[in-house]
C-alpha cells in the first residue's frame, strides 16, 4: 500500500489543513484517487470527529470513500505542525490511509500494523532520519524480531481488553503493547480489542476461566459481567501503552480486585468510587459535546448575523436565521438529557439509558440545569443497577431489561426530580428577593451577580441573576445588566483561552470544544463552558466564578450599562462605557483561564 510515489520526505505545510491537502495531492499524483476534492472532504470530516494526531509526533489521517481507486498509504515528514495531537505536541511523521468504499476494514488493520511499528522508539527515530524513499520503505517493511525467551517462560495466563472512545489508534496500540511485552516476558497473553470495526480476538468463556487475571484498559463501557469472580485490574487505555510490563506483572502476582457477581446478577466494579464516578461522568460529557458545539454554533451564527436590539436583546427576524436559531435551541434542549442518559448508561448499561434520558428531560423542565442533569443521570444509573440486581423468577428475566428495569427506574427518577423541582423554585424566589434588597450599581451586588451567572451556566441560579438584570432594564437601571453582560461571556471565553494556553491539560475533544466555546462566548452563550464544568466541576466552576465575579466588579466600577437583556461582545453597540466593558471581559477571562490551568496542573502532580 505504501510505494515510493506516495512518499514525500519534506512537507512544506505550516497548518493542519495545508498538511492534509499536501498528502492528498501526493496520493492523487500517484494515481490512488478518483476525486481528490471528495477524498479531502472525507478526511476533514474524520478530523472533525476527533483528531488523528496521536502521541510522539505521529499523525494518521485517513478516509474511506468511493473517491479512492485503490487502497494506498502516503507518508510525509514535517518539521512540526500543530495537529491537535493527544499529547499537545507538534506532529512530524504523517501517514495518510486511503481506502475505497467497497473495501473491507483493511484500512483499520493497516492502521493497527502501523501503530504497532510506531510504538518502537527506534523505528520512529529511523523514520525521522531517513534520507531517501527507499530507506523509509525498508524501515517499515523490516520484520520485527519476535522476543520470546522460552528458557524463562513464566506460568500464568493473562487476558486483557482494550477500548478507547473512537476505537482506532489507542485501542490497537494498547493491544500491541501488551502482546509485545508479554512475548518479551515469556508470558502467555490474549488481548481482545473493542475497536471501530467491532470486537476482535474475542475472549471466550474458556479463556476467562483459565486466566490468572484480567486487564481492562478501557476509556468506554464494555461488558464486565463475564469477568465475575476473576481478579481484574482496570486502567485507562493509555496506561496499557505506557506501562504494559507493570500491568502484566501485577496480574501475574495476583493483584487487582475480584469482580463480584452473585447469582442474582449483583455486581461491583473493582475500581474505587472516585475513578468510577469520573468514568461515568466522562461518558455523559463525551456524548453531550457534539450537541453543545453544533447547537451553540447555530445559535451564535443566527444571533451574530441578526444583531442585538436595545430593550429586547437578540433580534432574529429573518426566516432563515430564525430556523437556524430553532435548530440550535433544539440541539441545546437535548444536551442535558444526553448528558444524564449516558451517565446512567455507563453505570447500568442499556437499562440505564431510558431513565437517564427522562431524568435529564425533567431536569430541563424543572429548570435544574446541567447540575440537575448530572444528579438525574447518577440517580437513574444507580437505581437501574439496583433493579437489575433483583432476584426474580426465571419467567420474568427476559422482560427485565426491556420492561421492568426501565419502568421502575424511570418512575423512581421521576419522583426524585419532582421533589427537586419545588425546592429549586422556592430557592429561586428567595434569591430574587435578596437581590431586590441590594443597592443597584453596588460593587457587592455585581460580585454576587457575576458569581451566580457562572455557577450553573443556564441553570436556576444563573436564570435568577439574568432575569433580575433584565427586569432592571425595564425599570431604567441598565447598570445592573452591564456587569451581568460581562459575566455571561467570561466562562466560555475563559475556557476557550485555557485550552489554547495549555492544550496538554485537555483531551482532544475538549480542545475542539474550547474553540467552539470561545466563539459562543463572543455571542453571549454561557452554556459553551458546560462540558468543561461537567467533566471537572471542582476546578472549572470555582475558576469561572472568580473570573466572572472580578469581571462584573470591574464593570460596576466602570459604570458599564447594557440596554439589552443579553451579554458578550455582541451587545457592544448598546453598551455604555465600551472600553471598560471590553477591559472587564478580557481581565475576567484571563483570570479564569489561568486559574483553571493552575488547578489542573496541581491535579496532575
Calculate the terminal CA-CA distance, rounded to whole Å. 43 Å
Oligomeric organization of the protein chains: single chain
Give the overall silhouette: globular
Biggest sheet architecture: 6 strands, mixed
Helix content: 55-70%
Structural class: alpha/beta
Q: What is the total tally of β strands?
A: 17
Mean pLDDT: 83
Q: List unreliable stretches of 5+ residues.
A: 147-151, 262-275
In percent terms, what proportion of residues is strand? 5-15%
Spell out the blueprint of helices and strands.
Elements: E1 7-8, H1 16-29, H2 36-49, E2 58-59, E3 62-65, E4 72-81, E5 91-100, H3 106-118, H4 121-129, H5 133-141, E6 157-163, H6 169-185, E7 188-195, E8 198-200, H7 205-210, E9 213-218, E10 231-235, H8 237-242, H9 244-252, E11 257-258, E12 260-261, E13 267-268, H10 273-304, E14 308-309, E15 313-314, H11 319-348, H12 353-365, H13 369-388, H14 400-436, H15 443-456, H16 460-474, H17 481-501, H18 508-522, H19 530-535, H20 537-557, E16 561-562, E17 575-576, H21 578-604
Parallel strand pairs: 1-4, 2-5, 3-5, 6-7, 6-9, 9-10
Antiparallel strand pairs: 4-5, 7-8, 10-11, 12-13, 14-15, 16-17
Helix pairs in contact: 1-2, 3-6, 10-11, 10-18, 11-12, 11-13, 12-13, 12-14, 13-14, 14-16, 15-16, 15-17, 15-20, 17-18, 17-20, 17-21, 20-21
Amino acid at each position: 500500500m505504501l510505494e515510493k510515489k506516495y512518499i514525500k520526505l519534506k512537507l512544506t505545510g505550516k497548518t493542519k489543513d495545508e498538511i492534509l491537502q499536501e498528502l492528498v495531492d501526493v496520493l492523487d499524483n500517484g494515481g490512488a484517487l478518483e476525486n481528490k476534492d471528495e477524498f479531502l472532504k472525507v478526511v476533514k470530516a474524520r478530523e472533525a470527529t476527533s483528531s488523528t494526531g496521536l502521541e510522539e509526533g505521529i499523525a494518521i489521517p485517513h478516509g474511506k470513500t468511493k473517491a479512492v481507486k485503490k487502497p494506498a498509504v502516503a507518508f510525509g515528514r514535517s518539521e512540526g505542525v500543530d495537529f491537535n495531537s493527544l499529547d499537545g505536541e507538534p506532529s512530524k511523521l504523517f501517514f495518510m490511509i486511503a481506502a475505497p468504499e467497497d473495501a473491507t476494514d483493511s484500512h483499520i488493520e493497516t492502521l493497527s500494523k502501523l501503530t504497532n511499528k510506531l510504538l518502537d522508539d527506534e523505528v520512529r527515530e529511523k523514520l525521522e532520519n531517513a534520507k531517501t524513499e527507499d530507506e523509509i520503505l525498508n524501515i517499515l517493511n523490516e520484520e520485527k524480531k519476535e522476543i520470546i525467551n522460552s528458557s524463562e517462560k513464566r506460568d500464568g495466563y493473562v487476558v486483557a481488553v482494550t477500548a478507547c472512545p473512537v476505537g482506532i489508534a489507542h485501542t490497537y496500540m494498547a493491544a500491541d503493547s501488551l502482546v509485545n511485552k508479554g512475548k518479551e516476558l515469556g508470558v502467555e497473553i490474549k488481548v481482545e480489542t473493542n475497536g471501530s470495526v467491532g470486537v476482535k480476538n474475542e475472549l471466550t468463556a474458556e479463556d476467562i476461566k483459565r486466566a490468572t487475571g484480567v486487564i481492562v484498559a478501557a476509556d468506554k463501557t464494555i461488558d464486565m459481567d463475564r469477568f465475575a469472580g476473576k481478579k481484574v485490574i482496570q486502567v485507562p487505555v493509555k496506561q496499557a501503552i505506557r506501562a504494559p510490563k507493570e500491568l502484566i506483572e501485577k496480574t501475574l502476582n495476583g493483584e487487582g480486585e475480584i469482580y463480584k457477581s452473585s447469582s442474582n446478577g449483583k455486581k461491583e466494579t473493582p475500581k474505587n468510587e472516585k475513578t468510577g464516578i469520573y468514568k461515568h461522568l466522562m461518558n455523559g460529557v463525551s456524548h453531550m459535546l457534539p450537541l453543545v458545539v453544533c447547537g451553540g454554533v447555530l445559535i451564535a451564527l443566527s444571533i451574530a448575523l441578526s444583531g442585538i436590539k436595545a430593550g429586547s436583546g437578540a433580534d432574529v427576524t429573518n426566516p432563515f436565521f430564525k430556523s437556524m436559531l430553532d435548530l440550535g435551541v433544539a440541539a441545546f434542549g437535548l444536551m442535558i438529557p444526553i448528558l444524564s442518559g449516558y451517565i446512567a448508561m455507563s453505570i447500568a448499561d442499556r437499562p440505564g439509558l431510558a431513565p437517564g434520558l427522562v431524568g435529564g428531560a425533567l431536569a430541563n423542565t424543572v429548570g435544574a440545569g446541567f447540575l440537575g442533569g448530572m444528579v438525574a443521570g447518577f440517580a437513574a444509573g444507580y437505581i437501574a443497577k439496583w433493579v437489575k440486581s433483583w432476584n426474580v423468577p426465571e419467567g420474568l428475566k427476559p422482560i427485565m431489561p426491556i420492561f421492568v428495569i426501565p419502568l421502575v427506574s424511570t418512575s423512581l427518577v421521576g419522583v426524585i426530580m419532582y421533589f427537586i423541582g419545588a425546592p429549586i423554585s422556592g430557592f429561586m424566589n428567595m434569591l430574587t428577593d435578596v437581590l431586590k434588597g441590594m443597592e443597584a450599581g453596588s460593587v457587592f451586588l455585581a460580585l454576587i451577580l457575576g458569581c451566580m451567572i457562572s455557577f450553573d451556566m443556564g441553570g436556576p441560579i444563573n436564570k435568577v441573576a439574568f432575569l433580575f438584570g433584565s427586569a432592571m432594564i425595564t425599570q431604567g437601571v441598565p447598570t445592573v445588566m452591564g456587569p451581568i453582560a460581562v459575566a455571561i461571556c467570561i466562562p466560555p471565553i475563559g475556557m476557550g483561552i485555557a485550552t489554547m494556553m495549555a492544550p496538554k491539560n485537555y483531551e482532544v475533544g475538549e480542545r475542539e470544544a474550547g474553540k467552539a466555546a470561545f466563539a459562543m462566548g463572543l455571542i453571549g452563550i454561557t452554556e459553551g463552558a458546560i462540558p468543561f464544568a461537567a467533566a471537572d466541576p471542582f476546578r472549572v466552576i470555582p475558576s469561572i466564578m472568580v473570573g466572572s465575579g472580578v469581571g462584573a466588579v470591574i464593570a460596576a466600577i466602570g459604570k458599564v450599562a447594557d440596554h439589552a437583556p443579553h451579554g458578550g461582545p455582541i451587545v457592544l453597540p448598546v453598551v455604555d462605557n465600551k472600553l471598560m466593558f471590553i477591559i472587564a471581559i478580557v481581565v475576567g477571562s484571563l483570570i479564569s483561564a489561568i486559574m483553571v490551568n493552575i488547578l489542573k496542573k496541581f491535579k496532575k502532580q
